[in-house]
TrEMBL record:
PANTHER family: FAD-BINDING PROTEIN, FLAVIN-DEPENDENT TRYPTOPHAN HALOGENASE
SUPFAM superfamilies linked: FAD/NAD(P)-binding domain
Pfam families reported in the protein's UniProt record: Trp_halogenase
Species, as recorded: Sphingomonas endophytica
Gene3D superfamilies per record: FAD/NAD(P)-binding domain
Protein's UniProt name: Tryptophan halogenase
Length: 493
């Protein structure tokens, strides 16, 4: 077995590279020496602006002050995604980070709601109520259904710079240069060093491949192969363009479905991020540009940029002494803002399974098992949005409605349709409240509520639901506007 890991080398200085550097520097301290190699000539992907609440764990672990973070990355608060035209043209719903109501006597809240059918499901969801009114405040509550979980929208290039400053201040060495060759162990095939174009050598024991979609080490050297999921998720291109900011900053992302893909709108303090994710088999780049630029609600600040992508994952995300993190490990379109989370999760997994001596095969197997499951559950959740639709206005939607979906998702849908029951898959980051919102929002309604929801009398249930809706509404009235919250943190100037 090779010796202990003393030198960690990260290739790539995008979100993946700098998040890996910052967390390793913070958590492993001087147990390892960390070097990050990046090439300004290649640059970073530079999109990736919406996150989900676990980003708070990264900030807490790094000890980042939230107000400083908001100012430095020109961030805004994200409470939800508003999906428009997904279930049917004209429909909309919020997928929030909250939960409508708590389980009562083992029975999830949505069954009580289903039985009563008294008002809109999202009238019970604090995140949705705040999103609708453009309000935000930090709420503390012992009852998770009265908390207000949130994430951020931020400028990803500013986020990278922020993490770089943090990492360099904690001893990470940054090397600017283009990797042009790789040295490998003659017998084991492990990577031993990166060779830069000017001849410099960066040797290491463990290499983290954060080189983006090219997969410099994991694919180009170790050739682990790629599992392509394009038959389930046919979008293969994005077009991104920034635009002027709105007068009032919404505390949510908008996801607007079109004939052959969907458009994102992400509000930042200084501008809006916009983009169209589309299928090149169904929409030309010219038509995509017309569609995107015609749906901005503000002046474009740049030319649209095309970003081709391939949906799927590296067959082994850890191979020999290389761990792939970020776009080198796989890609799922940003419909549920999961890529930065998958970066975070990969780094935390690596830290959990960090080799104590040499790299034991069992560690690698366990890492790959967990990574595969996590990617697949996110994939299934994204497929759900496309598949559970009543849209039939284009070949794109007709094909997606009719396609066979992965077995795990098919079983989940069948169970929910029949009974309203949802099973939680291991390592699925999306919990029951998320699945319920997207299923109901896309028009998938269970045939019946659960018999346990009949355990309360009709009048009593009506009174409980009325009180709950009022209790959810009450704090919203007292809250500041989202923009006022950002100003109080020193932002928006
Ligand atoms: P990159 O940013 O591509 O960085 C690669 C790095 O490797 C660069 O520093 C480059 O210089 C370096 N490199 C490569 N080759 C060499 C070499 N030979 N020598 C030296 N250095 C080299 N995620 C979200 O969570 N939320 C979102 O809203 C979101 N939106 C997205 C929208 C689109 C259209 C796309 C395509 C992605 C989106 N993502 C989103 C994903 C997110 O952008 C990425 O997960 C994230 O930016 C991580 O990228 P990365 O660091 O892996 O790669």
């Amino acid at each position: 077995m090779p010796a202990a890991i003393e030198r960690v080398v990260i290739v790539g200085g995008g979100t993946a590279g700098w998040m890996a550097a910052a967390l390793i520097a913070r958590v492993l301290g001087d147990q390892v020496r960390t070097t990050l190699v990046e090439s300004e000539e290649i640059g970073i992907i530079g999109v990736g602006e919406a996150t989900i609440p676990p980003i708070q764990h990264v900030n807490a672990t790094l000890g980042i002050d939230e107000a400083e973070f908001l100012r430095e990355t020109r961030a805004t608060i994200k409470l939800a995604i508003r999906f428009e035209n997904w279930g049917a043209i004209g429909d909309s719903y919020y997928h929030t980070f909250g939960a409508a109501g708590r389980n009562i006597a083992f029975c999830p809240f949505h069954h009580f709601w289903h039985r009563a059918q008294d008002r809109d499901y999202w009238d019970y969801d604090l995140n949705a109520l705040c999103a609708r009114d453009g309000k935000f405040a930090k709420l503390r509550s012992d009852d998770p259904t009265f908390a207000l979980p949130y994430a951020y929208h931020f400028d990803s290039s500013l986020y990278g710079r922020f993490l770089r400053r943090y990492s360099e201040a904690r001893g990470v060495t940054r090397v600017e240069g283009m990797v042009s060759a790789v040295e490998r162990h003659s017998e084991r095939g492990d990577i031993t060093a990166l060779v830069l174009r000017d001849g410099r050598r960066v040797a290491g024991d463990l290499f983290i491949d954060c080189s983006g979609a090219r997969g410099l080490l994991i694919q180009q050297q170790l050739n682990v192969g790629f599992e392509d999921w394009g038959h389930w998720l046919p979008c293969d291109r994005a077009m991104a363009v920034p635009s002027e900011r709105f007068a009032q900053t919404a505390p949510y992302t908008r996801s607007i479905a079109h004939g052959a893909g969907w458009q994102w709108r992400i509000p930042l303090q200084h501008r809006n991020g916009n983009g169209l994710v589309y299928s090149s088999r169904h929409l030309s780049d010219e038509a995509a540009a017309t569609l995107l630029l015609g749906n901005l609600d503000g002046r474009a600040l740049d030319e649209p940029r095309i970003i081709p992508f391939r949906t799927g994952r590296a067959r082994r995300q850890w191979d020999r002494n290389v761990v792939a993190v970020g776009l080198s490990s796989g890609f799922l379109e940003p419909l549920e803002s999961t890529s930065i989370y998958l970066i975070q999760s990969a780094i935390v997994r690596l830290l959990h399974l960090f080799p104590q001596g040499g790299i034991a095969p069992a560690l690698v197997r366990e890492y790959n098992r967990q990574s595969q499951l996590e990617y697949e559950t996110v994939r299934d959740f994204i497929i759900l949005h496309y598949h559970a639709t009543r849209r039939d206005d284009s070949a794109f939607w007709r094909d997606l409605r009719a396609m066979p979906v992965p077995d795990r998702l098919a079983a989940k849908l069948e169970l929910f349709r029949a009974s309203g029951v949802l099973n939680q898959d291991p390592l699925d980051i999306f919990m029951e409240p998320s699945w319920v919102q997207v299923l109901l929002g896309q028009g998938v309604v269970p045939a019946a509520h659960h018999p346990l929801a009949d355990g309360v009398g009709a009048d009593e249930l009506a009174a409980q639901l009325r009180d709950l809706a009022a209790a959810k509404r009450a704090p919203v009235e007292q809250m500041p506007l989202h923009d006022d919250f950002l100003r109080a943190c020193g932002g928006m100037a």
